[in-house]
Amino acid sequence: MHYYTYDGTFEGLLTVIFEVYEQKAWPDKIEKQGQEQPGIFAQNKFIPTDEVKAARVWTGLKKKLSENACTDLYKTFLWEQPGFEMLIFRYVELVFASQANIEENFAADCVRQISQISRQIFREKHRMEAFVRFQKTADSLFYATISPDYNVLPLLKDHFEKRYADQRWLIYDLKRSYGLYYDLEKTDFISLEETQVNSKTGALPNNILEEKEPLYEQLWQTYFHHVNIPERKNKKLHLRHMPVRYWKYLTEKKPRLNG
User: Fold this and answer.
1) Staple partner for 31: which of 10, 16, 36, 65, CB 3.0–4.6 Å?
2) For the DUF4130 domain, which residue ranges apply (predicted)?
């Protein structure tokens, strides 16, 4: 049995796929290093990331797939659920083994599953775009926390760069301990050694917020309270569009501030 491990990056996974074809040693399992649990007779082989090899695999896929299909493969990597690496490998294997385009070959399990995953990732991305609530700090940084089911943070970059191009902002994924930081010129991925965020509410402490920020939050809560019409409430529809797991990051769902 062949077990491959890699560093957890998309380029690392593509490097594994390159090595599989180079060595003609087909994998029984591919996992991120540190998460593997091989059997007694398995050969566990760590494959270091090689940008050149990864690029060759990606270029080969782009020659045979549409841009949307390539994006769906990347979304499957962001899905992070157990077995996603082998799902991607099976899809790539089918791509390179087929003369015809396989994107609509839904009789193949891997094609059907990746199509379903793409829709799940799209919904999670859309919710994050809608539910992000920034707090303004004393040094004029707009800060927000998220904790999505899937690793959609890389997919939020373009949306927030366009929408908030004139202000510095940081969106931080508490579950995965990294964030997107925009400094008015470019956006980088960063990791913080420690944060002062309340893990239950996602809120920053008042002592590092801009002086009027609590007032703005209070005004938003008041507005939200007054536009809500009790007679027109549809709890089932509300929960479908705004699941409870996102409420802790929404200003309007926090306990109302006095005033």
Assistant:
1) 36
2) 84-252
Highest mean pLDDT among 25-34, 48-57, 185-194, 237-246: 48-57
Give Cβ neighbours of residue 208 (< 8 Å, ≥ 6 apart): 137, 138, 196
Question: pLDDT digit string (tens) for 125-166?
Answer: 999 998 888 888 888 889 898 999 999 999 999 999 999 999
Residue 40 has pLDDT above 70, yes or no: no
Going by C-beta distance under 8 Å and a sequence separation of 6 or more, which residues neighbour residue 162?
Answer: none
**Same domain assignment for residues 140 and 73:** no
Q: How confident is the model at residue 240 (pLDDT cuts 50, 70, 90)?
A: low
Do the beta carbons of residue 180 and residue 170 sit within 8 Å? Answer: yes
Q: Is 3 helix (H, G, I), strand (E, B) or coil?
A: strand
3-state secondary structure of 223: helix
Give pLDDT, residue 242. Answer: 59
Examine the domain organization and report whether 115 and 162 are in the same domain. Answer: no
Residue 142 lies in domain? 132-253
- pLDDT computed for residue 14 by the predictor: 98
- Residues 166 and 182: their CA atoms lie apart, in Å, by 10
Instruction: Count how many Cα atoms sit within 13 Å of the Cα of residue 24 in the half-sphere of its side chain.
Output: 0
- Alpha carbon distance 24, 10 (integer Å): 21
Q: Looking at the domain assignment, is residue 259 inside a domain?
A: no
